[in-house]
Amino acid sequence: MDPKCWHVELNDGHFIPVLGLGTHAPEEVPKIKAVEITKLAIDAGFLHIDCAHVYNNEKEVGQAIRSKIEDGTVKREDIFYTSKLWITFLQPDLVRPALEKSLKNLQLDYADLYIIHFPTALKPGEELLPEDEHGKVIFDTVDLCATWEAMEKCMDAGLTKSIGVSNFNHRQLEKILNKPGLKYKPVCNQVECHPYLNQSKLLDFCKSKDIVLVAYSALGSQRLKGWVNQSSPVLLEDPVLCAVAKKYERTPAQIVLRYQVQRGVVVLAKCDNEKQMKENMQVFEFQLTSEDMKVLDGLNRNLRYAPYQLLKASPSSLWSMPDMPVTPLQNLHEMLPILCPS
Ligand SMILES: NC(=O)c1ccc[n+]([C@@H]2O[C@H](COP(=O)([O-])OP(=O)(O)OC[C@H]3O[C@@H](n4cnc5c(N)ncnc54)[C@H](OP(=O)(O)O)[C@@H]3O)[C@@H](O)[C@H]2O)c1
């Protein structure tokens, strides 16, 4: 397949397509839709597909990838597939079985990238969000450096080409980078990133360590009820952003995706329809001036759509930093179906 999408080199020598398809869908969307959407996306030129065990759709996404390989649209090596290690599997002996489970669901021999979903461990077991009798999430104590070593072994075993992390701050990244005997550096850190939360400091840090920052919720998130504050501003309706879009005769979505591409960020876009997929793929067809990049930088307001800081409230996590506020877990109960779609 003639790649429509640029690639960047990772610190382990593999290449990642700069634009990826997000596959996290609201729980009311039938899982089977993921087959159709992923096939459409591959037809539109998406070669990078971002998924996770916790999205509960790896069977469908894998089915779509295999069908596009079987019909000759792509070869396995054209596709860059990311899966994520869910946080009930952070104990080192659970890491490889968790990846093997994902591969079994996908019916693929390897992942291109396997990342630790969050730097916080929950109690291992069947439940994706284990709770005590009071409905409080049960954390676990894990040395994430040991988890990382298990990730390295998965790479050595050929189960994944690259390994990385997600939702890590710079100190958490440093813990891994400074680990005695580190064999492989994380190739990426996948975090929420868009003009309202442009992560410029974390981006500079990642660049200084040759770690690619991968942006999620780059279009302003899916604004899922009970998950994202519904009174938060809608990114794609921002007047400054809309004025930039008008100037380039592009859509606000194309501008925010292009913004990331131009600052060296790999960007994910969740979309369900063919028209928007094609529109998003056009980010490689135009360029923003440095003045307009600064205008977009100026929109930053440290607004985080995803309330994942709740998961940082682990009392026992090695990764709880002294300056990290401990947030009460009061809303987590309502979020369970969204975090763990059935
Ligand atoms: N590592 C993590 O913890 C983490 C967390 C969150 C997300 N992610 C990953 O990142 C992916 C993307 O993030 P996200 O799911 O928050 O959503 P997003 O990429 O910010 O997309 C938000 C919405 O934008 C809409 N959209 C897409 N293209 C558009 C266009 N051209 N014009 C107008 N609207 C457009 C989509 O609507 P429709 O759905 O109606 O098409 C989508 O619901 C996820 O799916 C997941 O793979 C990872």
UniProtKB/TrEMBL annotation:
It comes from the Eukaryota. InterPro entries: AKR, AKR1C, Aldo/ket_reductase_CS, NAD(P)_OxRdtase_dom_sf, NADP_OxRdtase_dom. Keywords: NADP, Oxidoreductase. PROSITE patterns: ALDOKETO_REDUCTASE_2. It holds the Pfam family Aldo_ket_red. Residues 19-300 form the NADP-dependent oxidoreductase domain. The keyword Oxidoreductase applies. The keyword Transcription does not apply. PANTHER family: ALDO/KETO REDUCTASE. Belongs to the aldo/keto reductase family. This is Aldo-keto reductase family 1 member C23-like protein. It comes from Ceratotherium simum simum (Southern white rhinoceros).
